[in-house]
Design a protein that fits this description.
heterodimer; A: 434 Repressor (Amino-terminal Domain); 2 strands; B: alpha+beta; Cathepsin B, Chain A; Four Helix Bundle (Hemerythrin (Met), subunit A); seven-stranded antiparallel beta sheet; two-stranded antiparallel sheet; 11 helices; globular; DUF4872 domain-containing protein (chain B); BtrH_N (chain B); DUF4872 (chain B)
Chain lengths: 138, 335
């Protein structure tokens, strides 16, 4: 890529940061050039972030309606999925799946909740609660 | 307690591990640029692992696994590197403080998600980020030279500890590394030719269909088969490739440009015109990967009448180009 072609698209996802890219200058040699972002890359990032946001929004509504436990919402909010939460907590995926149901979650010992809290940087009380929502049906 | 600030020349880099290697070695008086560290370690590759899922989407990587670069560079250039892992978090933090007190720069492997200075949209659970700690304030905050950022940053101790000891895939287990000794002078020429040759050999791929050229073609086939999937999955799948390529680490095109930059520097150092010609070819490879990313995103946007077959064909053209770059590299022999 030529130095003059290094994209400067001011990606919102960079939050004002710049990235270094190696590009070819006028003399035909490489040098480091900073980029404020590339529209193509930021589109892909935004798509992924939107998908995560949508999943966590849906989980919040379901949790407020008592269909899933608050853990389901916090897991997605903190960008964990079953695989990564299993890897970090040491629980099996099937155990976490059970914990995502309100009935099982309500009976979890403080010891188990503390494992989640430790990995997710939350207190047990925070883990059990949901954000207040004006349009909440509960 | 007073502030501890160790002399460091922060340099923004394209990728964390190569950036850390370069900065640590330069601070010890051994002038190795980031592309040189990348090239010497023969780190450029391609991996498509459909069975390793991250957020339900397959892993695609454009370089050798974490730690391969620093280990390889240090081994080749006879650099004394001390690495330590910790089962006890407090001991891991103490060991870091001890090294800083002795005036040593410390390389760390950390999670990205728990570093508060990262932009929100770039925070995800990836545990193989690399950075350098160059000091500690009287208040107990760590001073960090994070190679992917323009400027140095500060991080509270609690957050850094969390980032160092985050569990999960590629868990760092508090890994820290210190360069103890570097040789006064190194003749890079033989290492350059050996590394170029090794990279070329690896570019074909290993026995399994997931690596190198075979891996790229395997992924191209998969893109073709996406027609059977729901449109939403098609988009997420292609978007995932583009993110793995352009955002995570420095991306496929980014690594290709970094490799070309290494060839360019190697040509200057050795005066070998063949290396210069290969650098030019490497640039074309990188450019084509970027065009592929563009096509993939265009398909997602549906702005153009672009089919999955066309996106797949573009990727095959990347594989073809890399094949011819490989042949070029194999033909280069030390004078």
């Amino acid at each position: 890529m030529d130095k003059k072609d290094v994209p400067q698209d001011n990606s919102a996802t960079y939050q004002g940061q710049k990235k270094l890219i190696y590009a070819v200058d006028e003399s035909g040699h490489y040098q480091g050039v900073t980029s404020t972002g590339w529209e193509v890359e930021s589109f892909a990032t935004q798509m992924a972030v939107d998908e995560l946001q949508q999943q966590s929004d849906e989980a919040l509504i379901k949790a407020q309606n008592g269909e899933v436990s608050s853990l389901a919402y916090h897991m997605l909010r903190l960008r964990f999925d079953l695989v990564s939460l299993a890897q970090t907590t040491g629980f099996f995926q099937w155990q976490i799946k059970r914990h995502l149901t309100p009935k099982v979650f309500a009976k979890l010992s403080d010891k188990k909740l503390a494992i989640y809290g430790d990995v997710m940087k939350m207190t047990i009380a925070e883990l059990k609660s949901l954000p207040n929502h004006n349009d909440s049906t509960n | 307690m007073k502030d501890i600030i160790i002399d460091i020349k922060h340099q923004q880099s394209s990728h964390c591990e190569t950036g850390v290697v370069s900065t640590l070695l330069r601070s010890k008086g051994l002038d190795i640029s980031e592309p040189m560290a990348f090239g010497l370690s023969s780190a450029m590759t391609f991996v498509y692992l459909p069975m390793v899922k991250i957020g339900g989407l397959p892993l695609i990587a454009y370089r050798m696994p974490p730690k391969a670069i620093i280990k390889s560079v240090c081994k080749k250039l006879n650099i004394e590197l001390e690495t330590r892992k910790f089962s006890d978090q407090a001991k891991g933090m103490q060991a870091l403080d001890d090294e800083l007190a002795k005036g040593n720069l410390v390389g760390l492997q950390t999670s990205v998600y728990w570093l508060p200075y990262f932009p929100e949209d770039m925070r995800f659970h990836f545990n193989a980020h690399n950075l350098i700690v160059y000091g500690k304030t009287a208040q107990g905050n760590y001073l960090i030279s994070d190679p992917v950022f323009e400027h140095v940053v500060e991080c509270p101790a609690e957050d850094l500890q969390r980032a160092r000891f985050a569990k999960g895939a590629l868990a760092a287990k508090g890994l820290m590394y210190v360069v103890r000794n570097v040789p006064k002078q190194v003749d890079l020429t033989p290492h350059i030719y050996a590394a170029v040759n090794k990279t070329a050999k690896m570019m074909n791929g290993l026995l399994l269909p997931f690596f190198g050229n075979k891996g790229i073609r395997h992924l191209a086939k998969k893109i073709n088969k996406l027609t059977k999937e729901k449109p939403k999955y098609q988009k997420l799948f292609l978007g995932n490739i583009v993110r793995m390529q352009e955002e995570i680490g420095t991306g496929g095109a980014g690594f290709r440009f970094m490799f070309a930059s290494f060839l360019d520097e190697a040509a200057k150092l050795t005066g070998d015109k063949q290396l210069q010609a290969a650098a030019k070819q490497g640039t074309e490879v990188g450019d084509n990967w970027r065009e592929f990313a563009m096509d993939a995103v265009l398909f997602c946007k549906k702005r153009k009448d672009l089919s999955l077959t066309q996106v797949s064909e573009k990727l095959i053209s990347c594989a073809d180009q890399e094949k011819s770059l490989r042949e070029k590299l194999l033909s280069i022999k030390a004078a």
